[in-house]
Write a structure and sequence with these properties.
single chain, about 50% helix, Rossmann fold, five-stranded parallel beta sheet, two-stranded antiparallel sheet, 9 helices
Length: about 200
């Protein structure tokens, strides 16, 4: 029986770094964001449906995320159309990934895991966290973020405390070494095997 582990965490909490650590331990990782990028790209499975239903979002035979953001800001009701197009394609990609990966443990990197009720089909959920000042420092250090935008993103995400309360497992991502050790311990706990 494969253990389906969901990974989530607010912006700047170390989710991508933690997902990479699972990859380095030979755990298959499905990435929700990467899947959407693939669907939106030239030749992606979502492009024909966007051409039919939201033609203004197509630029150079791909879905433009920037145009999509503008359209959604103008008309928030378009989110339903967007979800009708994208959710079934994401689910199909995830199912195909699972068919190919029958390891004892598979990780699903899903930024809006609780917000989309993904916990309903997962075996357990891992939330990565860090103190608020560390989170903010990491995000601002990326150089492409304003304080206003950071606060806007946070306001759309479930609060960290609530995510931690709903999680089955929590890893604090203060140092790379401690995070890697916690990842290895969790893999051992969930699979009963060690990855040497």
């Amino acid at each position: 029986m494969t253990h389906l582990l969901g990974l989530t965490g607010s912006i700047g909490m170390g989710k991508s770094t933690t997902a990479q650590m699972f990859r380095e331990e030979d755990i298959p990782v499905w990435d929700a964001d990467a899947t959407v990028h693939k669907l939106y790209a030239k030749g992606g499975a979502a492009v024909p449906a966007f051409e039919r239903r939201l033609p203004d979002t197509i630029i150079d035979s791909a879905v433009s995320r920037d145009v999509l953001k503008v359209e959604l800001a103008k008309s928030p009701s378009l989110i339903k159309t967007l979800e009708d197009i994208v959710h079934p394609l994401v689910a199909a990609d995830r199912a195909a990934f699972l068919e190919k990966n029958t390891a004892p443990l598979v990780l699903f990197d899903i930024p809006l895991l609780f917000e989309t009720n993904a916990q309903d089909w997962l075996s357990s959920v891992l939330v990565v966290t860090a103190p608020q000042h560390v989170q903010k420092a990491r995000v601002m250090a990326r150089g492409e973020m304003t304080e206003d935008l950071f606060n806007q993103i946070l306001s759309r995400q479930m609060p960290d405390a609530e995510k931690r309360a709903r999680a089955d497992h929590v890893i604090e991502t203060l140092t790379l070494d401690d995070t890697r050790m916690a990842v290895r311990n969790l893999i051992t706990e969930l699979t009963g095997q060690t990855n040497a």
